[in-house]
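hey so i finally got around to running both of the ones u sent me last week. sorry it took forever, my laptop kept dying halfway thru and i had to restart like 3 times lol. anyway pasting them below in the order u listed, first the sequence line then the structure token line for each. didnt double check formatting much so if smth looks off just lmk and ill redo it

first one:
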Amino acid sequence: MTLCTSFLGRIMNDERLQQQATTMYGEALRGLSTTITAPNFYASDYVLAAVMCLGMAEVYSVPIQPAVDVGWASHNKGGCELLVSRGPSILRSELARGLLLRFRVTGVWTQLVYEASFLLKSGNKLYTAIGRRKPFPFANPELRQISKSANQNYYDNLMDAMVDIPGLLHDLNSMRQAAAGDHKKLRKGLEDILTRAKAIEAGLGQWLAGFVTQDRSAWHCVDGPPRPGASIFPGTFRFRNLLAAQATTHFWAGLVILARCYAMCQDLSKGTINIDQSVYGACMQLFKCSPLQTSSADALIGLTGDPQALGSHFADMICSAAGYFTSRDRGISGPIILLFPLWIAKDMYANMMDEISRHKEVFCIGIFQELASRGMKISDALVSLSTKTP
């Protein structure tokens, strides 16, 4: 009821419903807290569903500003921890299996966004406040095997290929701190990070090959900007359905994060490691599979040695799909799917120095502001969240 009232209150701009949602939110939160702290507590399917619903309600309407900033993420963190306590029993019901997959999705993207902000020294308080400075639980071998057993489609398989990225970010940050001033230790740490990143790339390449084989009509690119006034992007992506759109854009967002990891490794190495084009071998193959019609083979080869340009390319692809997701006939699902990939694209542009990246960043911010006006208050938090050094 809290989720439904929050959603209706925002999209109808009904102040009475919004106030009622605030009251219901408080009651639901207190009830959930009482249940979780009770003796002999068990994380039942209904408790997990309640956590998910409260988190989604916070996307639209929450009582205080800190909850706008961290509530959604903190409920996903709590839900993931409860899933760990369930173990294999989570597979015994259809509801529980569905919740497992949804928590994995929201957990991956919560960590990629907020872990990235911490990794890249943004000074952002949001990440620290929700206490995410530890590896992602879905990369745990036992939970990973359980979640694989629950997979239902190619998007679920994509999440399998991406669950190691949050841990990569975590360990890159830890290594950077531990090896400060020790060039030998730094070199060894960077070599390990690059090896792991290449393995993740290879897994994403295998996923892409299977995805393209399974759904050859998943996407196509047409001439014209993704939205009016967005001529900075060369084309517009269209998709067969929302599932294909979700898988494709989330795949691109994962590659943006990997490219930024490579850029961080280059900055940290300061010449101590020769990061040659072979490091980008898997990305090169993925790049060749890009449906962006304006890319030539020569241009792709040139970008493989420049992780910033590589990340910017995939960010462009996300933005070129924005019009599909924000179309009114996509309902609420389209904007929700777009939120975190769009933030990853925005933050990619924010950390680039050229003028066109400023225009692209403004484009992303404009979409967030539009979504906020349509009731998705979490968009405001994503506008202010940035890894850019002041």
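and the second one:
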Amino acid sequence: MTDTPRDHSASRARRPTCPRLARELLLVAPDHEDLTLGRLHTLTDTGRPGATRS
């Protein structure tokens, strides 16, 4: 088996993407605010965002 040099540029390019993707999946804002909790408060306190009552 021969050792081939790895292309670290792809790895370096993914580094900023990984935390961003994790934040999106976990619904955490860059300032560590829990977005899920905020959305739940909106739904329980005021109803669906953007909903109009007739």
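quick thing i noticed on the 2nd:
The chain has three helices and no strands.
anyway thats it, ttyl
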